[in-house]
Amino acid sequence: MESIEELKVHYRWTAEDEENLRKVSKYFEEHAEEFMDEFYRYLENFPDTSKYLPSQEVRKRHREKVKDWFISLFSSRYDASYLRRLYRIGETHVKIGLPPHYVNASMNFVREYIGKKLTELYGCSEERDRILSSVNKALDLNLDVMVSSFREEELKLYLGSGKYTRVVIETLRRISWFFDAFIVLSLTVVGMFLIYWVVYEILLAFSGTYTLEKLGISILGSLLVLYAVSELLYEEIKHIRGGSISISVFVGVALAAIIRKILIVSLTPEKVYELITLGFVVLALGLVYLIVRKVETKT
């Protein structure tokens, strides 16, 4: 990790920047509670906030810590002690498993809030622009140090492994990438085939070979499966980018396949018992889908 002096050079941090922050330190200390109220309303936008802030006691401690950090952003000396404090904040995020994305997004909210309050205080003036420039440097420096904790923890884990362990890790990582690429390619091919099949069925409607009722239901069923495949493709791309895969999507694919089957069977009146059986299957899958979606929303 870079020293505070190196960071100051990289961000062109000067004594004037610290003075600019101190000019508004009293103002933002007075608005710290307002900031925390807006910040917690912002956190509710994240679907898994309750995972990292599970109880009122934890939220109370977290609120005080964030409030202290917000006040110190303007009032602290940017020295080695402040750097260690930022690094400890980052380590805490690593310990609770908080994704770096949340830190980046939250810092953007802080930036917008401070910019709005500075405009209320100074209007659109050169003074506001000077102070806002210093605030942006401070926020970027803070974010740099906090996020570096994630990188360093990952590096420690990697370097702490033996030589052969690292070889295995790299090999598995490449195999995993191959599997992901193969899945994306396969889903793309299946999607293209389904598009071709839907177009083919539409052309059959003009040929008069089949009844419009049968073709219409068949096309609708094919579109359902195509939609399910597109959802799977989206989830796999999200997984490659580092996101988590939603289990409910797989249940949705099963539902689409069964519904397509029901549409086709419904054209044959004598298959009433098969239709009833498929109806119960859809009901069961629907309940599973609701349960899985509820669990995923909570987590």
UniProtKB/TrEMBL annotation:
The chain crosses the membrane at residues 177-199, 215-234, 246-266, 272-292. Gene3D superfamilies: Globins. Keywords: Cell membrane, Membrane, Transmembrane, Transmembrane helix. It comes from the Bacteria. Residues 2-154 form the Globin-sensor domain. The keyword Protease does not apply. GO terms for molecular function: heme binding; oxygen binding. CDD domains: GS_GsGCS-like. Its main location: membrane. It is found in: Cell membrane. One of its GO terms (cellular component) is plasma membrane. It is a multi-pass membrane protein. This is Uncharacterized membrane protein, DUF373 family.
